[in-house]
Design goal:
The structure holds two protein chains of two kinds. Chain A is α/β, with parallel strands linked by helices. Chain A has nine helices and twelve strands. In chain A, strand 4 and strand 5 form a beta hairpin. Chain B is mostly helical. Chain B has a single domain, classed as Orthogonal Bundle (MetI-like fold), CATH 1.10.3720.10. Chain B is built from nine helices and no strands. In chain B, helix 8 runs antiparallel to helix 9. The chains are: A alpha/beta, B mainly alpha. At the A-B interface, helix 2, strand 8, helix 3 and helix 5 of A face helix 6 and helix 7 of B.
Chain lengths: ~260, ~220
Amino acid sequence: MTTNLVEIRDLHKSFGKVEVLKGVNCDLAQSDVVCVIGSSGSGKTTMLRCINMLEDFEAGTITIDGEAIGYDVRDGKRRRKPEREIARQRALTGMAFQQFNLFPHLTAIENVTLGLVKVKRLGRDEATVIGERWLDRVGLSTRRNNYPGQLSGGQQQRVAIARAIAMNPKLMLFDEVTSALDPELVNEVLMVIKDLARDGMTMLIVTHEMRFAYEVANRVIFMNEGLIGEEGDPREMFIRPKTQRLAEFLKSSSFN
Amino acid sequence: MDPTSFLEQIWIARWPLASGVGLTLIISFLSIIAGTILGVGVGMSLTYGARPLRWLVRGYTDFIRGTPVLVLVLASYYVLGTIGLQLKPFQAGVLALAVFCSSHVGEIVRGALQAIPKGQTEAAKAIGLTFAETFIYVLAPQALRQILPAWVNTAAEMVKASTLLSIIGIGELLLSTQEVIARTFMSLPFYFLAGALYFLINFGIESLGRLIERKISIQS
């Protein structure tokens, strides 16, 4: 019996000869909002992508709500789960990407309802009701019939968040969702995430927005060279970093 | 040359010419359809196939694309015969064109699928779609729009390539025109007529292609 929603144990991941994750351990309780910071190449995004099996990982375990993600261990042998099972497990989490990755041939509402209809097997009407509710939540109900190409970057990212969250995931993953946005569009996306945090959504957020991390996160993870270098309350960590590496990172980042 | 006598000759030759046009249309249609079905398989194998399959199919497309269509037509009629598979001229011709078409369509499909950003597949996976669902609902609709212009080109090429079947005695438009010329000695006018008919067929194909392209284009 576990009290944590997400448990990551001894997570190892290599790309060829380069070991990107060197044994990461991390827990998320229900309604945790955890921001992951660190310099590029430190493994933040890779950790996120392992959680929904966009990347395979060589060793360690990830469990969500007590369910082992991606791999079965039988007779001491570790086997990748069948593709269909992995697809189902991916729907336990929702993900928003740096590049939005909306489906360009579908309207905003169709983007949001695709998963509801094809994965959750809801009827089209029911899916549309849910989809409209989430488009409304991200402030885009008037844009429901627009194609991604007709929306600004900030609007696209909000639709992408609605698409992920409409699936009612147990955990939301955000992968540098504001990095590709013009500065004036960053805020509207961060507002949506803050709004979700107030709802009690469990979230793991990779971000370079230090101010945002400081405000929204109840815990911050600083990743350094494939390991968690430091973690804790941002109000504590950002003011009095324990490690030299974090102090240097904070100094070089925009937070001050 | 007396224009009224040319019109008269066209009238006299109307049935052979019409049957030539009909045969050209049927041959083109069948080879485009078969070639496209085969070509989609080729393109998907090249994109998603395991390495041995990919190499095999790569060898197939490179070989076919490096061979003149005329040689393919002759080979499918004469060479297959030597290994005990004697096809009728019509079957051999359509087979040769379909194989030729498939190698081109295969490359078009591969190019279109590979041009889709990786993020599309990842976003589809992230909401829980399986690979097959991702392909059907996310990748194929986008690839289709990319494929269409090049595919229409290939279809027009197939109509033109169908003239090569005259060499194995299939009375498509070119051969039936030549037969009419042999009887009337009006070579230039009838060749022009054939040219105009080919133009009409391909113009029709391209107009249809443009119409579909407009219908399915993504708004932005």
